[in-house]
Amino acid sequence: MGSPRPCKTLVPSSLLTPADRWKREEYKGEENAILTSFNRNFKARNDANSKTMNFLSSPEIVTAMAFAGRLSFNPMTDSLTDANGKPFKFEPPTGIQLPQNGFTSGDPSYAPSPLPPPQPETPVQISPESTRLEVLEAFPKEFPNSRGMELPPLTTLMRVRGKCTTDHISAAGPWLKFKGHLSNISENTLITAVNDEGGEVNVAFDHNHGSESAKDTIPAVGKRFKARNQPWALVVDDNYGEGSAREHAAMQPRFLGCLLIVARSFARIHETNLKKQGIVPIWFADKSDYGRIDSGDVIETEGLANVLAGDTNAQVTLKVTKKDGSKVEIATRHTLSADQIKWVKAGSALNYIKEQKASASS
């Protein structure tokens, strides 16, 4: 079928994975918009141009808009001009959603061969010298502890300023080769985050540093806390964790000892990922309280035990002991559901699943 006008670029979704970008130079630095039918919908994600706005739509609308070349086009009512100068209007696509007689079985040679039943006792051999793979150890259960079903006293690692995407938390690029080695990939944790106390990138302060320098990189201070068995908390700004849904952005802080993240607001998917790894995400009830917690301050929760007992409407208060010994209380809110509470109590969602399977087989 002849097209009414030259079609704008159509990029298959398989070309734009979370680590890929479209080489698109003609609109560099110029405000423009593209439509996609897959979830890469924030500025600069597809072509590295911060002026490119990205809107999500259905494949049918994306195709129609590619022919029209303007966002004001309504394919249900507006016309285009074909190659002969005559008006042309799209017709809404129709068809049955599922075949009435079901799908054909297809070529059996494409079907996977039956696999033997899993044998959990089978050892997985990984070279101890490998820098790309290591055995993933289960995260520890944090409840109960010395404070019962409240979080233990947490040292504040830092206060993150401004935008902090999953790329800031766990950078991609050359780090991707370490995705199977949690110890190594954790060396990139928050390395492009801005410390609100001074405005420097990848800088944190260890206020109990002993013979070591107080100032160090963020992952280095996190590793110090981990070595001292000192669980820690993070204070973050608005929409923390926006971007791709990479699990490592939640796994890495947890691996280094983070148990609580207090935010002005969270990106929805990342907030859920934190809960899956056993980190408690808490929202400031008053966003202006963000600046009241500094690095080195000690945070204790009050009311979390009620939440973990099943009262999802319970309020959690943060009792903060400042470095000078003064104390402040900060009101918060949470979004933990009944199922997510089970993940946190078990130490992670995987821990909870393992517990359920063990219980079912006993």
From TrEMBL:
One of its GO terms (cellular component) is cytosol. Residues 97-107 have a biased composition (Polar residues). Residues 157-286 form the Aconitase A/isopropylmalate dehydratase small subunit swivel domain. The keyword Iron applies. Residues 30-69 form the Aconitase/3-isopropylmalate dehydratase large subunit alpha/beta/alpha domain. Pfam families: Aconitase, Aconitase_C. Transmembrane segments: none annotated. Keywords: Iron, Iron-sulfur, Metal-binding. Residues 111-121 have a biased composition (Pro residues). GO terms for molecular function: 4 iron, 4 sulfur cluster binding; aconitate hydratase activity; metal ion binding. PANTHER family: ACONITATE HYDRATASE B (PTHR43160), HOMOCITRATE DEHYDRATASE, MITOCHONDRIAL (PTHR43160:SF2). InterPro entries: Acnase/IPM_dHydase_lsu_aba_1/3, Acoase/IPM_deHydtase_lsu_aba, Aconitase/3IPM_dehydase_swvl, Aconitase/IPM_isomerase, Aconitase_4Fe-4S_dom, AconitaseA/IPMdHydase_ssu_swvl. The lineage of its organism: Eukaryota, Fungi, Dikarya, Basidiomycota, Agaricomycotina. Residues 83-125 are annotated as: Disordered. This is Aconitase A/isopropylmalate dehydratase small subunit swivel domain-containing protein. It comes from Tulasnella calospora MUT 4182.
